[in-house]
Each structure stands twice: as C-alpha cells, then as structure tokens.
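Quality-control log, excerpt.
Job 1 of 2 completed; input and output follow.
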Amino acid sequence: MQVNALLPRYPVPALNVPLTTGGRFVLGASPAEHFDLLVFYRGLHCPICAKYLLELERLAPEFASRGVQLVAISSDSEERGKQMADKVAASGVQFAYGLSLRSARQWGLYISTSRGLTSIGIEEPTLFSEPGVFLVRPDGTLYYGAVQTMPFARPPFQDLLGAIDFAVARDYPARGEFTGDV
C-alpha cells in the first residue's frame, strides 16, 4: 500500500468532519487569516497526544493573535472525541472526530493496528491514524506538513509560532514543491 505525500503549494485533500461542540469543520469554508493548523492525533487512548494537545490549548491565544485557526482531528468516536476535548479543557482548539481512515490516508497519515490497552488503561481502536501536523493556507494549499509513524517527537508548537511569524513577516514561500526528475 502506497502512502500519499502531499506537496507544498498544491491543494490539500478535502476535509469535512464533525465537531465535538456541534456543527462541522469544513476546510476552506471559513479559513483563518493566515493558516489553518490541523493537528491529526491518534485518539483518546494516547497519553502523548493528550500532553501535546494540552500544550496546543495553552498556546491557542498566541495562534489566534497570529490569524491561525486550530483544529485537532482524530478517527475516534464522538464520545471519545468529547472526552479528549474535556481532558484538555478545550476552548481555543476545535476538536473534530470521525475522520475516516480513507481520508487519513489521503492526508498521508500512517495507519496502525490496535495493541490493546495503553499505559493509561484505554483500549486502542482496531485501526487508527498516527499523528500529522499541517499548516494550510486560506487558498487551500499546503504550506507545512509533518507526518509520523510514532506518537513521540512531534513538532513543538512554540517552534511553529516562530515559523509562522517568520513566514508572514517575510512572505516566505512553502518549500519542498519541486516534482521534477532528480
């Protein structure tokens, strides 16, 4: 099975997922001023995800002041999505659930199989996607993307804030767009 690689400066796949607060997040329907930051996480079963998303929630005002909309997305059920949103006391981060594994693959995310109970005693879903972090421009093109095969060593949100400041101030282009022969 081939995993898709998204290309900077090109349109990202469609994304239309339900939100734990009601309604839906439809990428591109109401884009942020500068970027939508999409944080795909493994699910409620992942203690590293909870810690990572707590940090995102803590920094949510910093992202908002820079014209960045925050969405955390998993393939979890509505109940599990709401539990994660509650766990991180979400107010600045929107939480979406029900991401199809087909959509996860379109985003280039890796898929894992369950290994049973995690260290926090929560059952892993039969199949779930591994983490990914993407900055999407208001025009629907990819600016930045990072995908992982494991839950640890994720891009620090503080570093992303600095990168956003640099990118906006200097109109820095997305990099990694070359598709010719090498």
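Job 2 of 2 completed; input and output follow.
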Amino acid sequence: MRVRLDAYLAAAAARLSDSDSAQLDAELIVLKHLAKPRSFIFTWPEHQLDDALMAAIEPDLVRREAGEPVAHIIGEREFWSLPLKVNASTLIPRPDTESLVEAALALPLPANARVVDLGTGTGAIALALKSEMPGWQVEAVEFNPDAVALARSNAQALGLDVTVHHGSWFAPLAAKQFDLIISNPPYIDGDDHHLGQGDVRFEPLSALVAPNHGLADIEHIAAESVKHLNQGGFLMVEHGYDQGATVPPIFRNVGFTEVTLGQDYGGRDRFTLGHWQP
C-alpha cells in the first residue's frame, strides 16, 4: 500500500489534534524519517509513502499522541537558527529565551568579553552568543552530567569554542571574572499547576522548579554574581512572566544599578538586567 505524502500528513495531523501545532508536529515527525528538509513537503506533496516507512513512523506518532514533546521524538530543536540536539536530561530551548540572546548582543561589551551562561542545559544561550560574537570568550556551567555531555556535543557539532563546566552555578568557576553573566535558571513554584501540562511533564523538575516561590536560584545567582563580575559588567536572568515585580528588587538589594525588565516576543516580562558599578 502506498499513500501520498500530503494525504498522510493530513491524517497524522488529525490524530494529533490535541496539540496546538498538530500540522507542524506531523510534518517534523515524518521529515525525520524521510531525512528531507521541510521544503520537500511543499515541493513533492505527491511523494508516495510505502508500508515500511509508515510502520517506522507509527511509534513516533503514538508517542506524540501521548503528549511527548516533538523535540524529544526527533532529538532536535532549533534555537537562534542553530540545530541543537535535545534529550530528556534538560529543558527544551524555547523561543522566548531568544529575547535574552538578542538583548545580550546589544550590550556595550568589549570585543573580547568574558561571558558565562549558568545552567546552560543544551548550551543554547552560550552557543547562540558565541555564534554571533566569535571574539567573546564564552563559558557555560551545568549541574546535570547528562546535560553537560549534551551541551559539549552541541558545541562540537556546531564547531563553536564554548567551554562547558560541570558543577553548581559558580562552584566550578573559582575566582574567574566576567563581563556578562547570563542564566535561564529554574524559576517555577513547585505548586504551579502548569507543571502538569504540555511539554514540561517530560522535562526534569530540577531544571524547572526552585524553592521560595521559584525565586531561590535567582536570589543565589544575584548574590554570588557580584563576586564574579568585572566593573561595569552585567547580570541577565530569565524568569517567569509573572515575576516582573519580584526579581528586579532582588537585583537592587545586592547592589545592581540601572535594573531593567526585558520582554519576550509576546510582550511579556521575561528577564531582568542589572549593571554592576560598585
């Protein structure tokens, strides 16, 4: 039995109708098995899928029907136009986090700026910055050893010189000083009902949840960052859209000035930026 590609995709998308992106989900899963770019769908809608290929695709459709993230099923997620390998050891990079990268690139940093990405996960932020600013000396820190291996693998695959340290926050950095410290730390309250919804059900709680209503890790990073920032350096931390009133005071309380809120592409408060001028 053979089925046209466009007809198969329509049927697959119908099966995935609980998803907000059913058509895209179906396309990405099928393209994984075709080993073709997305343009193939529009160029060759009459392409015939045979029984063997459809049998290979079926388990992945079942996984998506059960709610498993597409990124885990295909093993990849694009971030800042970089193809990143992903797995269940860490967060799937979100488009909202690209707003941090954009804001960081606009900062008045030296051409050879020293930068560290804390809790790097897949390496998304660090690798995006290095891809745009090859003169920057970019490092990253990650606590989960499996995620460390993943970030290092992504750096190697992309040919980007980013050193990934294994450890908790500043612990592996000794007395190093930086011009920019950037982080997307855990910031969700453990009682947040969103933890039972969508892709986060398949992501490690350790990368999502922090004590003190989601603020504990942000508080730690802010307090310790002042020991590792050069004069005139910056701290930038991602947080929840509903934490725009609580995070900036944390920065100010440890001595940061020119503390500002930044928004994601949906116009929601997404990160806080502070300037270190002791």
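Post-run check on job 2. Residues 51-65 form the longest helix (15 residues).
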